[in-house]
């Protein structure tokens, strides 16, 4: 066996080993989609809880305002009856209730701000999820193309990809594999030319 043939066999074995070492990118994408779906459901529950919190605070504001009106009415009645001490107590209770209503209003504003941020984040998460789901079909077709190309070059080699952590890494993985396959084909074309062999 010639030196170049041996080098070619070692190179091909290394590439096949690398391909076998990697996991299937579609499995990784499916895991990412499942994790994104779980995150979306958790975020929806959070948004639901925030909306309930806002509603509870708004009910407290309404009840506090009613209490203030009631105490103000009691103070007026006490003044008309000449009961200044009772009127003073009713107005003091009204002032405390107004302070509580003010605190509830501030909490509502903060909760609404948090709710708006959560809804904005949810919209972005859903957009990313839909993008990943729509690209899955494209990746499936690309993987099938790569598998068929590999079967043409080495029918017995199994094709598996490296576990990826993001959609961008999946894109890079496919591009790398396509370049590797093109380089392999170029080497084979050069090898098959009579002047390319070194016997």
From TrEMBL:
Family to which this protein belongs: Belongs to the PspA/Vipp/IM30 family.
InterPro entries: PspA_VIPP1 (IPR007157)
Lineage, uppermost ranks: Bacteria, Bacillati, Bacillota, Bacilli, Bacillales
Protein name: Phage shock protein A, PspA
